[in-house]
Amino acid sequence: MPTITATYVDTFAAQYGVPNGTFGSIRMQVCCKPSRRVVKDVGKFPLVLFSPGLGGSRLLYNVLAESLASAGYAVATMDHTFETLVVEYPDGSFTPGLNASYWDPSIPGRLESLLGVRVEDGRFVLSQLGRKDVVQKLAPGSACGFNTSRVAFYGHSFGGATAISALMNDTRFIGAINMDGTLYGNQTDVKKPALLFGRAEPSPHNRTNDASWEGVWKHLKGWRRELGLKNSEHLTFGDVPLLLKLSRLPIPVKPIIGSLDGERSFKIITTYIEAFMDYVLKGRKSELFSGPSEKFPEIVVG
């Protein structure tokens, strides 16, 4: 994690007892050694977009994204400038986010307006990734842009709301996952795959206690599923539980990440995300969505 971003995240995490410098000390090891072989046709990799939680950094979901990328997907994670804690650029400059009070959900229309901005961010990123000149800066030697005509979108919390809204408002998005996010904005009927991935007992979040989920559910006219993860909390759906498990820090954070083991929750979440993407972008059906799984008894299929 870049230095300035790590400082902002450390400051935020301190309220939960996370020692200063924790996120700055974390290093991510990729799954393979750098290759001299240039991939010219990046368009052969199915493209997936990711949006983080309200005010959150995309870098707190890096390991989730890497796991999906290792399955043969091109994963583009987004920060949302002025909303994210801080956005740090390659040249060392940065843009801090506005005060969190600006995104007060009690202000009528505020989050709906922000949702529209986020969806436009996603559209812009998608348009840029389809350009050869832009992609060549990201992947030197590439001979084309990504295929942006069939893209999946997933997100956590407000990022999940962003993914569902984008699915309903842009034909290029052909499938979306909402991970534990309350949904906002105007909904329209859509015949595209959608997954609402929430929480099961003892702290459930699903259609029975979130009217926004039930409201969206009736507009999902294609393949749709609702999942609940037992013993999870809102921040289970990201890298934090795994990072804290690996750090071995004795931090009392169960109220925000749940009691489920960090490595186990990571395995479950990444497996179901990959299975959904395989269905949407590769046409591979999975029995995981048909009902209870012996391998993953922590999942409740709704």
TrEMBL record:
Q: Which GO terms describe its biological process?
A: lipid catabolic process
- One matching Pfam family, short form? PAF-AH_p_II
Q: What species does this protein belong to?
A: Paraphaeosphaeria sporulosa
Record InterPro entries: AB_hydrolase_fold
Task: Tell me what this protein is called.
Answer: 1-alkyl-2-acetylglycerophosphocholine esterase
Q: Which UniProt keywords apply?
A: Hydrolase, Lipid degradation, Lipid metabolism
Q: According to the UniProt entry, what is the EC number of this protein?
A: 3.1.1.47
User: Annotated Gene Ontology MF terms?
Assistant: 1-alkyl-2-acetylglycerophosphocholine esterase activity
Q: Which domain of life is it from?
A: Eukaryota
